[in-house]
Amino acid sequence: MLNSATTDDGVYEVYALRYASMPERRSLENFLVRDGIHDGPMALEFYIWIVRNAHRTILVDTGFGREAFAGQRPWTLIIDPIESLVQLGIDVETIQDVVITHLHCDHAGSIDRLPNARLHVQDAEVNYATGRCMCESHLRYGFELENILTLMRRVYSERVCFHDGDASPFPGVSLHLVPGHTPGMQVVRVMTKRGPVVLASDASHYYANYLRRAPFKLTTDAIATLRSYNRLLELADGAVSRIVPGHDPKVRALYPKQEAGGIELICLHEEPVHHDLEALSRVDNF
User: Fold this and answer.
1) Would you kindly state where each structural domain of the chain is located, as residue ranges?
2) Which is it for strands 118-122 and 97-99: parallel, antiparallel or unpaired?
3) pLDDT tens-digit profile of 17-51?
4) Could you give the 3-state DSSP secondary structure of residue 99?
5) 50: which residues sit within 8 A by CB, 6+ positions away?
6) Helix (H) or strand (E) run with residue 150 in it
7) Which terminus of the chain has fewer Cβ atoms in its 10 Å neighbourhood, N or C?
8) Confidence at residue 74, expressed as pLDDT on a 0 to 100 scale
């Protein structure tokens, strides 16, 4: 069972939970511009994040929905992300707040299985995912229609909290618009015992993306992405070790882990094992 001993309402424990993987991914698939990037194995990992103290539990992203595992996406499921919460002893019907960093299907699926949650999204992201850009097959590649329809149903039932830029919806937790990967991409800054931790999600898929200033292959605006890299460092108070990328296997290698309910959790509120920036920027998996 996952229990929090953190009683300060503005300080949290933050856990990454790996739910899927793409082990056959190659490095040349992970960068928009390939100059200086050698080809080789560079797995893509998929996470959701749990932000928790004695006062509240906030879920950051929800992982895939069932449609994404209907044989249409080349990903390997490790554990159903919502079932994993149940195994951790978290009653999904009592989760009140879910931050959706962006509406791609690996981050905004399964919201229909969180019946009482209020979704926190950016205006720009909803406008993008429901507007004329979705007439282009390349731009809608990362989206699943059923997820967007579920979001719209939540809008009509008044269970969506829209944000237009930066916001502070909870003590010690703030949301920040960092466009580039998508127009409404947002990151979550969480205060922990080691200082602020920035859950970058797909603002930077890998450490190598922002350390090399080399955007991920799927990006709607490369210039905005590069500017957002600067914002990530600003939000982390200048400490690269406090920025957590959204898909990097190195996250599992860098942070202490604990087991709860048979689930491996990566403890992002703890100090990382090392701060070797050269190793983090390498295009490999350690």
Assistant:
1) 13-281
2) parallel
3) 999 999 999 999 999 987 778 889 999 999 999 99
4) strand
5) 2, 14, 15, 17, 57, 58, 59, 60, 85, 88, 90, 265
6) helix 145-156
7) N
8) 75
